[in-house]
Design brief:
One of its GO terms (cellular component) is plasma membrane. Residues 82-175 form the Rieske domain. By secondary structure, the chain is of the alpha+beta class. It has three helices and ten strands; from the N terminus they run H-H-E-E-E-H-E-E-E-E-E-E-E. It has two domains: 8-39; 46-176, Rieske Iron-sulfur Protein (3-layer Sandwich). The longest helix is centred in the first third of the chain and has 28 residues, at 12-39.
């Protein structure tokens, strides 16, 4: 008796499956390549997050602080009291790790307003106001303490809180960035 001869390579159902599977794999691979290439053409996230903002200072009362989100980071806008300004000016800058006078950190004629990027220069935590030994900000994560001018006084942070570029549009309005 002779057995029927079947040619496995000639089965049309099996061939169609292989074509479909190979095509689906090629489409998936193309998508995996195309998505990052198209995604990198989008603007950077920090440019989308308000490259510059205007803020009305009349919203902040003396002795208070407002926190505004700018470029994905907290921006501290502090209306300092006369006592805080006097304390900041009285510091001997030779004793500071990152020496800066208070006048270098504020705009002339507007010393009561202090504008800072609210990110600790040690590891990027957000410091709290009024809980440190120097009347300024305290970073609870690792113990960095800043004075009423945002200058590092104690702890592991290497630099002062950053002062962003800003200008006064009027006596009660600033533009940051």
């Amino acid at each position: 008796m002779s057995e029927p001869v079947t040619d496995v390579g000639q089965d049309p159902n099996r061939r169609d499956f292989i074509y479909i599977a190979a095509g689906a794999g090629a489409v998936g691979a193309a998508a995996m390549v195309a998505v990052p290439l198209i995604g990198q053409m989008n603007p950077a996230a920090d440019t989308l997050a308000l490259a510059s903002i205007e803020y009305d200072l009349s919203k902040v009362e003396e002795g208070m602080q407002a926190v505004v989100k700018w470029r994905g980071k907290p921006l501290f806008v502090r209306y300092r009291t006369k006592k805080e300004i006097a304390e900041a000016k009285a510091v001997d800058i030779k004793t500071l790790r990152d020496p800066q006078t208070d006048a270098e950190r504020v705009k002339a004629g507007h010393e009561q307003y202090l504008v800072l990027i609210g990110v600790c220069t040690h590891l990027g935590c957000v410091p709290n106001f009024g809980t440190g030994d120097y009347g300024g900000w305290f970073c609870p994560c690792h113990g960095s303490e800043y004075d009423t001018s945002g200058r590092i006084r104690q702890g592991p942070a290497p630099k002062n809180l950053e002062v962003p570029e800003y200008t006064f549009l009027s006596d009660t309005k600033i533009k940051v960035g």
